[in-house]
Hints:
This protein is of the alpha/beta class. Helix 5 (139-151) packs across helix 6 (167-180).
Amino acid sequence: xxxxxxxxxxxxxxxxAEPLVSIRELRVRYAPQDPFVLDGVDLDLFRGETVALLxxxxxxxxxxxxxxxxxxxxxxxxxxxxxFDVAKLQRGQLRRLRSQTGQVFQxxxxxxxxxxxxxxxxxSLYGAGAPNMLGTFRSADRKRALELLDRVGxxxxxxxxxxxxxxxxxxxxxxxxxxxQNPRVILADEPxxxxxxxxxxxxxxxxxxxxxxxxxxxxxSLHVLPLALAHSDRIVGLRHGEIVVSGHTADLTAEMxxxxxxxxxxxxxx
Length: 270
Ligand SMILES: Nc1ncnc2c1ncn2[C@@H]1O[C@H](COP(=O)(O)OP(=O)(O)OP(=O)(O)O)[C@@H](O)[C@H]1O
Ligand SMILES: [Mg+2]
């Protein structure tokens, strides 16, 4: 089954015209003899919405995110992100696509010995020319990095080495770094899997707030159902590479999401 999303905004809000990201009949496999890891996925992402991606380990969540940045081998179907037709991009265009895609990971991926501020500034290198690659950051970039640290609530840590921060604080730095790219979309692959429940909530609230305020889509993969129900506008459930549940979060319950988690098979195993 493949289900295309519908805009998450309510009637009082401005109607959204077109999806920013549009995936159709996407099939991905990593080798010709392998089974399809994504098998006919349709998904739209709209401005301002946070979409939670659920699925058991191996269901294809990370692969779907990789398909949006040209890192997954697309066998057939289409992936459109903004103006980019991802399956057809040459190297230079792929670089541009990636520079416009903010990514947040489970392990934060910061450089621990560098300051928080420098870590955020590296987000500006994506779109930078040669001078920035030499290690000097423009003062305008420094100002913006500090503003973003303020926005995520840790400006007071700007000069500390990143490794001295708590996990939740490091994830905020990673989000500020992603924002430094002026992203058109944010992909967050299990961003709270290493955080305690309280930190998880604050990080997910921050991502949802960014989606709304900056009017960009945020796609966030999660393993914890209650977190998805509390911190997303829509939920998409993957199972064995197919979307088995999709809907507005307000319309879904934990029971309705059960098919995502192979519950029948687990019960058979017991
Ligand atoms: N580079 C790769 N080469 C070959 N197979 C891969 C590769 N990456 C992923 N796979 C396979 O694709 C399937 C989906 O993997 P994927 O990482 O997308 O799942 P996931 O839903 O993100 O899982 P998890 O919750 O464990 O992160 C798995 O069977 C995995 O073994
Ligand atoms: Mg994964």
